[in-house]
Amino acid sequence: METQTDKPRVQLDRDAWIAAATEVLAEEGIAGLRVEVLAKRLKVTKGSFYWHFQDRRDLLIAVLLHWKEGRIRDIIKQTTADPGHELEQIYHVIDVYSASRSRRGMMIELAVRDWARRDSEAGAIVAEVDDVRLRCARALFLACGVPMEEASSRCMLLYAYVFGVSLMIYEKFDTDVARLKRDIADLIARSAHASGPA
Amino acid sequence: METQTDKPRVQLDRDAWIAAATEVLAEEGIAGLRVEVLAKRLKVTKGSFYWHFQDRRDLLIAVLLHWKEGRIRDIIKQTTADPGHELEQIYHVIDVYSASRSRRGMMIELAVRDWARRDSEAGAIVAEVDDVRLRCARALFLACGVPMEEASSRCMLLYAYVFGVSLMIYEKFDTDVARLKRDIADLIARSAHASGPA
DNA sequence: TTATCTCCATACGCTTCAGTATGGAGCGCG
DNA sequence: CGCGCTCCATACTGAAGCGTATGGAGATAA
């Protein structure tokens, strides 16, 4: 007759810590990702943490690797060959980041990249993700008949835009943000519209 | 006959602290901007700091306001009316951020924006800078004969790009980065080339 | 039952950091 | 001379935060 309501999880594994850490990362950034804070959130103490992880950096790298796997899985899924629908896929990649529902994902993205600016190990992992994403997106442009160099330029512009726009605060600038974002997506994807090869 | 070599500065004012803080901000980010670290860099102690500033946040806001003034001064200067050269000015605005010499400025920019993501007071200041920049850049497109809505889209794309590309790590992606950046600048500024109004 | 292994709590030492309190050196000024 | 003002040093408290050491509860297996 023991209550189990306040004992929802009896055990903790590495993945549970990584999941919770990713949540804190989205909310507070790297600087707010402290082991004691994290332990309190998981209703345990540091003793547990240092059993699963060597130190704080061990957790950070684990979070980053987990993030990398997810991002690569996502972009692969979003850009798998679907002949005739490549243009839709390009727009979808743009929209995914603009969507308010993916705000959490973008917060993680920005936190990770801010860390990577000053940490070479993190930078190497971000570089892998960027490389896969750029190549996948370029393949979509190429499939639309866009020549190689222009495809490279446009996919780079695409990703730089979605990250950069998340750093800006522009409510006062334009009243119709929806139209603005649609037009920008057109600018990025435009030549893929109905232009034949070359 | 007292040596003055190791006594280069006898006094410190608020601006000296702000300048040093801006330097640390560029190198270490907001999280690395601590008063004792800053004091050590200025060869003084905290006692001096807390005479010039109420607390750490007082310094951070002062740094941010100083940054704001400089950025607004810069963009005004870069976009003052120069009939017939608006297109050059647009390219110049893009190039200024890509230039390796302005790496320090971009580091500050990114550090400030990462802070502004979670601090509404900082966010308000960044919003002011964004608004001025976007309106100045839009005026250049308008002067080139680009219609209003497209001018809005393109200047937003411009700034999102320059910030976003600074967050990416893409050495492996393309061998000719110079060409890539040139082409992207063309994509952003293109319709302003020789297109008449409408 | 006893031994062992897993997972976590507790307690500790150490460092960094924010902010305060207080004194003191130097300097102008009456 | 002495007074007061400016600017900074020193010394302190207290709070976080990282990492370690150690024990203990609970399960498992012999």
Features:
homodimer; mainly alpha; disordered C terminus; DNA-binding; 9 helices; 198 residues; 68% helix
Low-confidence region ranges of chain A: 1-9, 194-198
For this structure, the CATH topology of chain A is Tetracycline Repressor, domain 2
**Major sheet size, sense and barrel closure of chain A:** none
Q: Rg of chain A to the nearest angstrom?
A: 20 Å
- The secondary-structure class of chain A comes to mainly alpha
The largest inter-chain interface, given as chain pair and residues per side, is: A-B, 46 and 46 residues
Basic shape of chain A: elongated
- What multimeric state do the chains show? homodimer
> Could you say what the CATH architecture of chain A is?
Orthogonal Bundle
Look at the structure and give the mean pLDDT of chain A.
91
* The CATH superfamily title of chain A: Tetracycline Repressor, domain 2
Taken together, the total number of domains of chain A comes to: 1
Strand content of chain A: under 5%
Helix run count of chain A: 9
